[in-house]
Recover the amino acids of this structure.
């Protein structure tokens, strides 16, 4: 066995990789529950890949058959319901994790130097995930899928100059049909998915280059012991591997509870209008996106003018990219920045309020919420450079707290 | 950050999520009685459905044989009580007696396939819809519906519900008591709910085992983590390398 190990390591840097990324990769010892989200996201992405592969074995990407083939998976394929619920509910749960993961980064200033690139790569993954979710959303070809496809491609169409040509390219023709499903499937399962996988790989390499931040926002690498290791660091393996295994257990329990007892989550994870087949003749009273995209949709609606709405929506999606440079405070973690912490909490509440209102029919009574929400959301990013300069900070301790 | 504040953050986030989950339900739909959904009710509902609804409606996604494997009905009972004598195939989906073309001639439009209707409209809507028919001489069928104005479907449950005027006045009482009427409608809705997601009984049967296993796994993992982390908390200098 030892011989085989030697043989292998002469030809492949297995031992080196293990050392560099696990046994001698030092992570702060004060991670809290929000630090489970990264490993859980990895787990969920792998599960989406496996369940997606199995779904594809029975899915037919054509206009007349797509809906029926998905129902065939639900009704006639052994364990088909389990696979499909895992895949569909997996999406919503991934976005729950993504929001916790991103929120964690904001709470503890993890986007700040030296983690700007890590943040940008991460946020790029989030945007790619929105695209991936949309592509998948159209595939079961329920009526909502059809109309969501219409709405999004019409947004593409509204882009200046390249819009109309791009929309035809996206749909594979003038309307949503078999050609659309075929190319969406190819994108969803192959190209787009693997771009995300590659981005995740880069994300983790970038993380290991700079090392993890922590809830105190202290750089553990700046305080090393005689052995050359950070005094507040512990080797990722075995400490965080066993801890993450516990996280996986708890998370899978939640996941299973959803699948076995509330697979549609009362129409939030699997919407009602996805249960009637696509029908160009039956338009839906309100085509609302799934909850995880709804905040941006609410901002789109906050401006009655179509181009203005699209501009605001794109602005809202893009702003977080600039966070590393918008924040000017000398302190990272919101633990030692009471004003910043209040702002983050307000932003979180606003974001989920926008998600709620984005799911409501477009009634005038919601305008105020949509506009107020959009103003707070954009205001957070625009005011941060000013507020973070003068906001009071508490003294950051020398060592991490536990 | 203190523990309390940390959980405050979490609570706000969770409340935000819950806000998304619980949608405003300002309508006044009726709900079937709690506990209406169980295997005997679904079986009763399947039989009522075959008798009163299968003339017009398909449940094409649900094969008859599922009633045996999911609900434990015998093949003989399915053939006698559920399958129509129109050449229905035990291994195929539930088909209506009437062809689409006939239905179109009679009602102006084909009655919809009810396979996914509960998921599309909700249990409460269908439960209420079936009890909201009223007599309207201006309609071709003589029937109208509070929840679905100008509906093309006649009140096929008239023998149970009787004839009710728009203002709620009973013009002719039903042949069964209102309680029995509600009960039967609830059974039909139970059947349609099952038909829209036949995995429901398997899920509810397996659920406790799967969750139990995962909770046990989590407990063991927690204990393991505690063991490993002892040296981190007790004596940082003696940690494993
Ligand atoms: C599927 C998507 C993603 C996967 C699989 C993933 C994976 C990971 C993993 C394994 C870690 C280390 C463990 C942890 O700190 O939780 C991590 C850290 C991090 N991720 Fe992600 N991530 C994803 C998306 C994102 C997104 C969308 C962002 C930001 C917008 C982001 C920003 C960060 C940051 C800033 C850190 C370091 C946090 C800290 O050290 O405090 N990631 N990610």
């Amino acid at each position: 066995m030892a011989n085989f190990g030697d043989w292998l390591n002469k030809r492949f840097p297995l031992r080196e990789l293990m050392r560099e990324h696990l046994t001698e990769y030092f992570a702060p010892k004060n991670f809290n529950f929000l630090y489970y989200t990264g490993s859980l996201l990895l787990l969920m992405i792998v599960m989406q890949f496996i369940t997606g592969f199995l779904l594809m074995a029975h899915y037919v990407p054509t206009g007349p058959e797509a809906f029926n083939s998905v129902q065939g998976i639900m009704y006639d394929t052994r364990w088909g319901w389990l696979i499909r619920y895992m895949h569909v509910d997996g999406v919503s749960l991934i976005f729950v994790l993504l929001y916790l993961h991103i929120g964690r980064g904001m709470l503890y200033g993890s986007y700040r130097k030296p983690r700007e690139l890590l943040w940008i790569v991460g946020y790029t993954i989030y945007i790619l995930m929105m695209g991936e979710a949309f592509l998948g959303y159209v595939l079961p070809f329920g009526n909502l899928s059809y109309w969501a496809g219409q709405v999004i491609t019409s947004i593409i169409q509204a882009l200046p100059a390249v819009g109309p040509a791009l929309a035809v390219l996206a749909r594979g023709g003038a309307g949503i049909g078999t050609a659309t499903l075929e190319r969406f499937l190819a994108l969803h399962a192959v190209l787009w998915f693997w771009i995300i996988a590659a981005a995740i790989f880069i994300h983790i390499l970038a993380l290991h280059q700079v090392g993890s931040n922590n809830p105190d926002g202290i750089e553990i690498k700046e305080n090393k012991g005689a052995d050359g290791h950070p005094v507040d660091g512990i080797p990722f393996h075995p400490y965080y591997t066993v801890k993450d295994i516990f996280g996986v257990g708890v998370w899978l329990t939640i996941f299973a509870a959803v699948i076995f007892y509330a697979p549609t989550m009362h129409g939030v994870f699997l919407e009602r209008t996805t249960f009637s087949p696509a029908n160009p003749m039956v338009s839906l009273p309100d085509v609302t996106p799934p909850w995880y995209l709804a905040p941006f949709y609410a901002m789109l609606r906050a401006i009655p003018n179509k181009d203005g709405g699209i501009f605001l929506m794109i602005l809202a999606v893009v702003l977080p990219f600039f966070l590393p440079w918008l924040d000017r405070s000398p302190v990272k973690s919101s633990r030692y920045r009471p004003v910043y912490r209040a702002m983050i909490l307000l932003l979180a509440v606003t974001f989920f309020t926008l998600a709620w209102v984005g799911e409501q029919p477009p009634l005038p009574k919601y305008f105020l919420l949509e506009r107020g929400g959009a103003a707070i959301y954009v205001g957070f990013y625009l005011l941060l450079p000013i507020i973070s300069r003068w906001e009071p900070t508490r003294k950051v301790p020398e060592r991490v707290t536990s | 950050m203190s523990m309390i504040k940390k959980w405050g953050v979490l609570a706000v986030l969770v409340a935000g999520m819950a806000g998304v989950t619980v949608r405003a339900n300002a309508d006044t739909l009726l709900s079937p009685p709690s506990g209406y959904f169980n295997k005997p009710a679904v079986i009763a509902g399947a039989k009522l459905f075959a008798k009163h609804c299968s003339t017009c409606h398909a449940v094409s996604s649900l094969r008859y044989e599922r009633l045996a494997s999911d609900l434990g009905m015998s093949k003989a009972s399915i053939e006698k009580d559920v399958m129509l004598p129109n050449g229905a195939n035990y291994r195929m989906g539930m088909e209506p007696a009437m062809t689409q073309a006939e239905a179109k001639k009679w009602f102006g439009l084909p009655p919809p396939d009810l396979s996914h209707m509960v998921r599309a409209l909700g249990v409460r809507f269908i439960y209420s819809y079936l009890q909201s028919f009223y007599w309207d001489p201006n309609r071709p069928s003589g029937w109208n519906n509070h929840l679905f104005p100008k509906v093309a479907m006649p009140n096929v449950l008239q023998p149970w519900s009787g004839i009710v005027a728009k203002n709620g006045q009973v013009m002719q009482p039903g042949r069964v008591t209102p309680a029995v009427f509600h009960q039967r409608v609830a059974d039909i809705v139970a059947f349609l709910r099952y038909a829209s997601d036949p995995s429901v009984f398997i899920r509810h049967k397996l659920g406790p085992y799967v969750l139990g296993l995962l909770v046990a796994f989590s407990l063991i993992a927690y204990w393991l983590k505690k063991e490993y982390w002892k040296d981190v908390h007790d004596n940082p200098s003696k940690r494993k390398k």
Notes: Residues 293-394 of chain A form one domain. Chain A has 15 helices and two strands.
